[in-house]
């Protein structure tokens, strides 16, 4: 799955079908069953990651999620990581920066939320906002944004060098799909709180955002992007789970060996 | 359930049967089914709590878990809050304080982890360590510990006044049950990482810890404690879930009303 979804040299977002399901031929029910089947292994991998860190392991995992509004970032955390132990997952949703955050460089608030060793971090939006909305809305000068691509590559190289498995995902929905999802929110009073009139202002800039994503994906590919067709929520969830599974299997995680004499401790316990 | 488990005036920890299941007459399978049945409501309450906070709501929930080792604090987070959206839950496990933390008053590191409005926070250990292990081990003077009971009551009153629903839980296991659980850890190589020889040093001080809990429960009851028999893990999980449900129902949470004109936004969307 990882190779199929990776944005390699020459990747063109505009030609990717948001309704496709690369690497999976089944339907929704099959996809949900496959997701269920993978959840146990992911929970075990997470626990091993955590266990290793208690014995000095320095590995962590960071899943960065970027997408247009309604693409399902929040649902990923819920459905893909829902069966792992919440104590081993640090999910953080970045909003518009505060005044304090604006007074620091754009990576300052990002660094504060990085997962410690042993944890899976999930960023719902990230430092990429500073080359996406900033580019589209002109919040920063073109020169500043130009510089940020390089700073991001350096920052991510540093992360990887420190033991973080960085998995960058763009969930890709079509403009029509977003319309349907926004309509569903407006039609359901229990969902009105999720809608904001500003969402439509952003939607009006759809083409500009797609272009900003295209450039960001091209310019920050030292750690590769994975672009996941997300019109089918069940597929996007399965694809993210498989990405996590594939990358975490590569870590060759294992249960730490006891650093004490097990028999000696058993004898102490028996006497206690 | 809340009243049944509440440590009222005259509560005596030494007479509480850790193997009992107050308020529930079923067996393990029934308890697990009941837990499953309650999880949907808890997830909805959590989402409403979060939704309200997006529209200015100031409410949060903080579940404080204290217990002897192996009592199942970690499992509570996993099994009781596992079906809620991980993005709305902030679980934090307090370890031995760092050098920096030791240079501040004992509530400093606690305050940093308080749940923001809209969130359910879970503390696996807490400021109570400063009147439990500190008392048993003599890490602080009796005078300092004496003063802390009052400081804790003041701190918790402040929390409640700021909109936090504070739920304090001691999971109560028997000394024999702990022995079995530690044996199980030592018998299973995939669990060796969870064992530490120091656990047996603490176990040797069992009676002192029970006494420290008894005093803490008596002296910090302005916000009442709930002591949950936890020899049956399934019961402890169900009891915590029901406590959360009962306390969160009292918040009268509801979906926020739209602060925009829904029809106007529907028309804008249709044109977009």
From TrEMBL, chains A, B:
<dbReference type="GO" id="GO:0008976">
    <property type="term" value="F:polyphosphate kinase activity"/>
</dbReference>
<dbReference type="Pfam" id="PF03976">
    <property type="entry name" value="PPK2"/>
</dbReference>
<dbReference type="InterPro" id="IPR027417">
    <property type="entry name" value="P-loop_NTPase"/>
</dbReference>
<keyword id="KW-0418">Kinase</keyword>
<protein>
    <submittedName>
        <fullName>Polyphosphate kinase 2 family protein</fullName>
    </submittedName>
</protein>
<keyword id="KW-0808">Transferase</keyword>
<dbReference type="InterPro" id="IPR016898">
    <property type="entry name" value="Polyphosphate_phosphotransfera"/>
</dbReference>
<feature type="domain" description="Polyphosphate kinase-2-related">
    <location>
        <begin position="27"/>
        <end position="250"/>
    </location>
</feature>
<dbReference type="InterPro" id="IPR022488">
    <property type="entry name" value="PPK2-related"/>
</dbReference>
<dbReference type="GO" id="GO:0006797">
    <property type="term" value="P:polyphosphate metabolic process"/>
</dbReference>
<dbReference type="InterPro" id="IPR022300">
    <property type="entry name" value="PPK2-rel_1"/>
</dbReference>
């Amino acid at each position: 799955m990882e190779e199929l979804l990776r944005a390699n040299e020459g990747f063109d977002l505009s030609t990717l079908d948001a309704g496709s399901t690369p690497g999976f031929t089944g339907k929704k029910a099959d996809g949900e069953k496959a997701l269920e089947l993978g959840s146990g292994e992911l929970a075990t991998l997470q626990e091993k990651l955590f266990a290793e860190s208690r014995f000095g392991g320095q590995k962590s995992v960071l899943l960065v999620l970027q997408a247009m509004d309604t693409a399902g970032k929040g649902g990923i955390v819920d459905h893909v990581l829902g069966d792992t132990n919440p104590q081993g997952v640090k999910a953080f949703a970045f909003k518009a920066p505060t005044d304090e955050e604006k007074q620091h460089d754009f990576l300052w608030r990002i660094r504060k939320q990085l997962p410690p060793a042993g944890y899976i971090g999930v960023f719902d939006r990230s430092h990429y906002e500073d080359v996406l909305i900033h580019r589209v809305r002109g919040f920063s000068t073109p020169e500043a944004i130009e510089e940020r691509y390089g700073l991001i590559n350096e920052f991510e190289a540093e992360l990887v060098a420190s033991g973080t498995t960085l998995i960058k995902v763009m969930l890709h929905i079509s403009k029509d799909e977003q319309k349907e999802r926004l309509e569903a929110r407006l039609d359901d009073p229990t969902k009105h709180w999720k809608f904001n009139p500003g969402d439509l202002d952003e939607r009006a800039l759809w083409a500009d955002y797609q272009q900003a994503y295209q450039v960001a994906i091209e310019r920050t590919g030292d750690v590769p992007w994975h672009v996941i067709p997300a019109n089918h929520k069940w597929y996007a969830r399965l694809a993210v789970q498989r990405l996590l599974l594939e990358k975490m299997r590569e870590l060759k995680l294992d249960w730490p060996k006891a650093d004490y004499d097990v028999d000696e401790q058993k004898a102490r316990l028996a006497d206690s």
